[in-house]
Design goal:
The complex is a heterodimer of chains A (237) and B (423).
Chain A lengths: L1 E12 L2 E13 L4 E5 L6 H8 L7 E6 L2 E2 L5 H11 E4 L11 H11 L4 H14 L15 H14 L4 E5 L7 H16 L3 E5 L3 H4 L4 E6 L2 E6 L4 H10 L1
Parallel strand pairs in A: 3-8, 3-9, 6-7, 7-8
Antiparallel strand pairs in A: 1-2, 1-4, 4-5, 9-10
Helix pairs in contact in A: 3-4, 3-5, 4-5, 5-6
Chain B lengths: L3 H13 L1 H37 L5 E6 L17 E2 L1 H9 L3 E9 L9 E3 L2 E3 L2 E5 L3 H4 L2 E6 L4 H6 L3 E5 H7 L10 E4 L2 E11 L12 E5 H7 L5 E2 L1 E6 L5 H15 L10 E5 H44 L1 H9 L4 H42 L15 H28 L2 H6 L2
Parallel strand pairs in B: 6-11, 8-10
Antiparallel strand pairs in B: 1-13, 1-14, 2-12, 3-6, 3-13, 4-5, 4-9, 7-10, 8-11, 9-10
Helix pairs in contact in B: 1-11, 2-9, 2-11, 9-11, 9-12, 11-12
The chains are: A alpha/beta (237), B alpha+beta (423).
Chain lengths: 237, 423
């Protein structure tokens, strides 16, 4: 699903150039449930942005579903994002003046689906996430967990291949965090690739593969079987 | 384009910043309002003036005498002289381009004291000696009776035609003035007509306050010999008045032994020339109106552009989210541009409507007072043509597009990630 090889990315800030990703190689297969970890400055946000085609890279290659993602113009990038990727953000990023259904239906609006049809589909997704009664509420009337579930519904509605979640539990308490993770796990069980960026070990431990970044390269990859070991190690740390 | 979501979005974006939206809209509103009101007022002035002189023969010129300024043929400078009744025939014979030619003499005003008496009533009015043809140059409406005719001239009849003010002062409102007598500077005249001027051009006093008697009668009764105080001519069709004016001057000067180079002795006014100058003035007013109006409008549009920029800044995150979930730059740009077009168009339309409304109101007031007051108001029918209104609206929409363009491109330049990171 995702093939990245020798990925370089640097940010130019005035006369200084900050080399963030230094020749990163990464393969993620379809249906994987992956978390990307790393301390701040390790390049995990940058990697996520590149994965999400929100940012371009300098060197190397990035194939998404067999297609090379490089030098896309903004229109093409937007269309690819719309059909391939579902985003979930730490701060939910719901549109404040739209109610839950309208927020969820938004990606379909960009696909030019008729209003009636997309609202019907959106309601279906909300129902799946147990938010049917909240369909016509504004984000400001909902709790954090509810908002994140609306955001997940929005990420799912365009039937993307990949779900990219940037600190999806960062703004939630632990109970709600686990609920959200359960939902993500369920989505993964249905065959979608889910990639989470997090710095919380217990959240990362709930995924099937952990990629630890350090200074712009992959420090270690912890796979399914070794997860228990990782959990123990975290506990001792 | 007609998706309810899009309009919803526009409404939300504008309604969230009510005060700023209103203030900005006010800029555009004020611009178009001023433009319409000023254009209308300019047009009103133009209409008023042209209505005041429209019926006046614009192909006319007038002449009157003054002291000579140059010595000539043995005469010293500063000589008093007069045109003579025979000059009319002389000019007819020598200047074939003349259409109408009429003399006009002015009677004494008794040093401002009353010169017209009827029983116990009296008044100080202008007394003019006129020719039948004069109404072909400066038309008037005959309210009662008739204007001076050829027989009056031939027989030197003691008849007079009076203006409305004269009637008001010398008669009771319900009285019929026709057949009554007025004593003008010591001589009785029978009133044969009551007239109302059609133009607002007055020669030697307002027509409303004037008494006209036959020219020949005036010469005889007031001992004017054969002098002519004032000469009015019109040029035949297709002949520039200037040509006739010059020719008339040339012949009169020749006949009266005045130096051809003397600029003071024979004065004239050329209505055609004046009229052209007036048209130039109106053009000037129009141009000024547009410059000021468009300037104000531009300021309003810049205001809209500014507010859009601020809105974009505030909505960076929202735009970032929209782009992350698949909004193409095109969607975003059209959204922002539509917002600004809506703002400018709505504000402009309101300004347009109110401006036209105000003009209508002024028009109504003018019309209702028009009958009562006879002031020299050179202002009627303020109006804006449909072309002006439509082009103003078109300018607004285009301006709205431009006002949206800058913020829209700015919104696109912000990378989605930067937009999302901004907390």
């Amino acid at each position: 699903m995702i093939q990245i090889s020798n990925l370089h990315k640097s940010y130019v800030m005035g006369s200084n150039s900050l080399h963030v990703l230094k020749g990163l190689d990464l393969d993620i297969d379809e249906g994987e449930f992956v978390s990307i970890m790393g301390s701040s400055g390790s390049g995990k946000s940058t990697l996520l942005n590149i994965l999400g085609i929100l940012d371009d890279y300098d060197e190397g290659s990035y194939y998404l579903g067999g297609r090379l993602m490089q030098g896309l113009n903004e229109t093409k990038a937007a269309m690819t994002r719309n059909e391939m990727i579902g985003f979930i953000f730490q701060s939910f990023n719901l549109i404040s003046f739209k109610n839950a259904v309208e927020n969820v239906a938004l990606p379909l609006y960009y696909q030019k689906v008729s209003r009636k049809k997309r609202n019907l589909i959106a309601l279906e997704y909300l129902d799946r996430l147990g938010l049917k009664e909240w369909a016509h509420h504004l984000p400001s009337e909902m709790s954090g967990g509810q908002k994140q579930r609306v955001a997940i519904a929005r990420a799912l509605i365009s039937k993307p291949k990949i779900i990219l979640a940037d600190e999806p539990t960062g703004a939630l308490d632990s109970t709600t965090s686990f609920e959200v993770m359960d939902i993500l796990k369920e989505i993964n069980d249905q065959g979608k690739t889910v990639i989470i960026v997090t710095h919380e070990h217990d959240i990362a431990a709930m995924t099937k593969k952990i990629i630890r970044l350090k200074d712009g390269v992959i420090e270690e990859v912890i796979k399914n079987g070794e997860l228990q070991m990782f959990k123990d190690r975290v506990r001792t740390e | 384009m007609f998706d309810i979501d899009r309009w919803n979005e526009i409404w939300n974006a504008l309604a969230k910043n009510k005060i700023r939206s209103l203030l900005t809209a006010f800029g555009v509103f004020w611009g178009i309002f001023m433009l319409i009101v000023m254009a209308g007022a300019g047009k009103g002035l133009e209409n008023g003036v042209s209505e005041g002189i429209a019926r006046f023969a614009t192909n006319s010129a007038f002449f009157w005498t003054d002291r000579t300024a140059e010595p000539y043929k043995g005469f010293k400078r500063g000589r008093y002289w007069n045109m003579e009744a025979e000059d009319l025939v002389y000019l007819r014979n020598n200047v074939p381009e003349i259409e109408y030619i009429t003399p006009k003499n002015f009677g004494g005003r008794n040093n401002g004291g009353p010169n017209v008496i009827r029983g116990k009533k009296n008044g100080a009015f202008n007394v003019k000696g006129d020719y039948p043809d004069y109404v072909k140059i400066d038309p008037c409406t005959v309210l009662k009776g008739r204007w001076i005719n050829e027989m009056d001239i031939r027989d030197k009849r003691k008849v007079c035609v009076i203006g409305e003010k004269v009637f008001e002062q010398m008669f009771d409102p319900k009285e019929n003035p026709l057949g009554q007598y007025l004593k003008i500077s010591g001589v009785y005249y029978q009133v044969v007509g009551l007239i109302k001027p059609e133009t607002r051009i007055n020669i030697n006093g307002r027509t409303e306050e004037s008494v006209s008697i036959p020219f020949t009668t005036m010469l005889q009764t007031y001992n004017m010999g054969n002098q002519v105080h004032f000469l009015a001519i019109t040029a035949k069709k297709g002949v520039p008045v200037t040509v006739v004016e010059e020719k008339v001057k040339e012949f009169i000067k020749k006949k009266h032994s005045i130096a051809p180079t003397d600029l003071q002795a024979l004065n004239s006014v050329n209505i055609e020339k004046e009229f052209k100058q007036m048209s130039g003035l109106f053009l000037g007013i129009q141009i000024l109106t547009w410059i000021v109006g468009v300037g104000t409008l531009l300021a309003g549009v810049i205001g809209v552009s500014n507010i859009m920029l601020v809105i974009i800044k505030e909505r960076t995150k929202e735009i970032g989210v929209q782009r992350a979930i698949g909004a193409t730059p095109r969607t975003i740009i059209s959204q922002i541009m539509l917002e600004s077009v809506v703002l400018t168009t709505v504000a402009g339309y309101i300004g347009l409507s109110l401006g036209v409304g105000l003009l209508e109101l002024v028009n109504k007031v003018l019309e209702s007072t028009a009958g009562k007051s006879d002031d020299n108001v050179f202002f009627t029918h303020p109006e804006v043509s449909l072309t002006v209104a439509i082009s103003a609206l078109a300018v607004l929409i285009v301006a709205g597009l431009f006002a949206g363009m800058i913020p829209a491109t700015r919104a696109i330049k912000i990378k989605p990630i930067d937009a999302l990171r901004e907390e």
